[in-house]
Design brief:
about 270 residues, alpha/beta, Rossmann fold, two-stranded antiparallel sheet, 7 strands, about 10% strand, transmembrane, golgi apparatus, membrane, Glyco_tran_10_C, glycosyltransferase
Length: about 270
């Protein structure tokens, strides 16, 4: 859904319909599944040799917090007992950053996703990203390629997605456990590709089919974006957080896996 606080009407970015009827229609060549779209993109892109681990599109605020994030990750590591999942061994996943919300790297969000899918296994999605109105924008774009979204969200924040389609922080008790799981997926192509199996049973539903009124309200050139005034020449990325807002925010990893102080009576 739209993430803007000034929205009068929230419209879905994209929606999925899944089930046996989709499989039957696909077998009869009457519909195009998400898997068909991903295969088409794979054929066009090609995947250039060994792909790297993960990539994260960040805005200026998130980029400025990278040093703070590193400190918090160290605190998190110290807070972990020897992880059963990693058997006490150090487990790392390398993450490359695309800064400035990708403006200097790619012309649009979809172009960024296309480039990332060709070179990485995972794309990190923070639910309060500076770069997107909603995490669903990046998640659904990633679904159309062979790249798995890794979602960082505070506990209690819910998102809708097909089973075994994303790696979600809420499913892990600690950052160490999540990283260990990512290492397993990176070392096992069979386990990694299970995150694409759901695509054979699902199709995308156009926003126009869900809400004709919403389309009318967003004018006839509606493309799933927030309507803008004529003087707003920006792209489909949302307005960046102010310095004050940025200072008041915790890094995404720290919000997803808060460290409990030893002095905390709870």
């Amino acid at each position: 859904m739209g993430h803007r606080k000034d929205s009068d009407v929230e419209t879905p970015y994209k929606a999925l319909r899944c089930g046996d009827d989709v499989v039957a229609a696909s077998s009869a060549n009457k519909t195009t599944t998400v898997a068909d779209v991903a295969r088409r993109h794979r054929d066009v892109l090609g995947y250039y040799g060994a792909r790297k681990d993960a990539v994260w599109i960040v805005g200026q605020c998130e980029w400025n917090m990278r040093e703070k994030s590193s400190v918090d990750v160290v605190k998190l590591a110290k807070a972990l007992d020897a992880d059963a999942a990693s058997e006490g061994r150090l487990q790392n996943v390398s993450v490359d950053f695309i800064t400035d919300c990708g403006r200097s790297t790619c012309g649009s969000r979809r172009e960024c996703v296309r480039k990332m899918a060709a070179h990485y296994h995972f794309v990190v999605v923070a639910t309060d990203s500076d770069c997107f109105h909603s995490p669903y924008e990046l998640i659904h774009d990633a679904f159309e390629f062979d790249i798995v979204p890794v979602i960082l969200a505070p506990r209690g924040e819910t998102l809708d997605y097909p089973w075994l389609s994303v790696v979600h922080s809420v499913d892990f008790g600690s950052l160490g456990n999540m990283v260990a799981h990512l290492r397993v997926l990176l070392s096992s192509p069979e386990a990694y590709e299970k995150y694409f199996s759901w695509k054979e049973r699902c199709v995308e539903v156009a926003a126009a089919d869900l809400c004709l009124l919403c389309v009318a309200m967003n004018d006839k050139s509606y493309e799933g974006r927030v309507r803008r005034s004529p003087e707003d020449r920006s792209t489909d990325r949302k307005i960046q957080a102010s310095r004050d807002e940025c200072r008041g925010r915790a890094p995404a990893f720290a919000r997803a896996f808060p460290v409990v102080s030893n002095d905390d009576p709870n």
